[in-house]
Amino acid sequence: MTRRVLAIILGGGAGxxxxxxxxxxxxxxxxxxxxxxxxxxxxxxxxxxxxxKIYILTQFNSASLNRHIARTYNFxxxxxxxxxxxxxxxxxxxxxxxxxxxxxxxQYVWLLQDWDVDDYLILSGDHLxxxxxxxxxxxxxxxxxxxxxxxxxxxxxRASDFGLMKIDGSGRVVDFSEKPKGDALKEMQVDxxxxxxxxxxxxxxxxxxxxxxxxxxxxxxxxxLKDSPERTDFxxxxxxxxxxxxxxxxxxxxxxWEDIGTIEAFYEANLALFKHSxxxxxxxxxxGCTIEDSLILGADFYQPFAERQADCEPIRxxxxxxxxxxxxxxxxxxxxxxxxxxxxxxxxxVQEAERESQGFYIRSGIIVILKNAVIADRTII
Length: 381
Hints:
It contains eleven helices and 25 strands. The protein has helices at residues 40-48, 63-72, 101-107, 109-112, 133-142, 156-159, 182-186, 199-204, 218-227, 234-238, 263-272; strands spanning 5-10, 31-32, 36-37, 53-58, 82-87, 119-124, 127-129, 147-154, 163-167, 173-178, 207-217, 248-252, 257-259, 278-279, 290-292, 295-296, 320-321, 326-328, 330-332, 337-338, 343-344, 352-355, 360-363, 366-369, 374-375.
């Protein structure tokens, strides 16, 4: 079933909500859980679902993403599987960069058409979840849908933060509303028992939100992209305006799912994987350090002979975190050099700050030390 499915992972735009982690890397290349990258989530879901033809669309800071994909995913010569990055490019026919999620796919539709597949699986590159796409595709094919959307049940408190949809008794999508408020929100309530929830679960979660994950029938996607060149986004334009003429179905996903597109969400999702802090690969932490509720993303290489003098006054601060340093509620990006007796604690309780010249930002009260930054001995942040 999934051998005739091609996966397309949307790498996203400039990743401004995750800045400064996206200052020198594409959003899908942002480190996750100490040794992975965001892109590993949808790619591993695909591979475990036996979907082995995978394109990744991106247009910003692609170098580290390309390097990670090349080093990590290599299929046997007896397989037709691949994981390949498709970067935005200008052509004589189209001099523009990607204008949105749908436009990104549209600009490469000539390549996608070359594959003899029945369906296209379109995924986001900044979500944290584990999903068997085989069940998703099976639902899509059984209902003979043109488009199937993966949805999550949601309570009223969080509902207005998402794009919501209404379904009929067969699970067909009949209406959309993007982040509704007030009376408009109340009108989007649905009976989620139709999708398999118990009556009690349906009462607690009377809304369904789009996960930004879709399966398109091959001909439907190609026609929608070619017939509506002015529509550049799947979630805001292509899909809502397709409900009238196409068979749109909802597939209920009941597992853990989190959109980690902001610094705060990224920080919370990482800490939720562990009980304290995350220490990435090739991290060097000297004696006497205190690290609380922080993400130490590690380093790209080991620094040989990175030795300090006995008085903790190095000629040049080596890679890693110096002795007697305290780090609390922070994200320390890769290849950072932090001196001795440093306090990274947000001592003034600042919520937002941009101190790029000093090597850090503050987002939602979380200190983010920039990649390759150097923090001098006895600095207090």
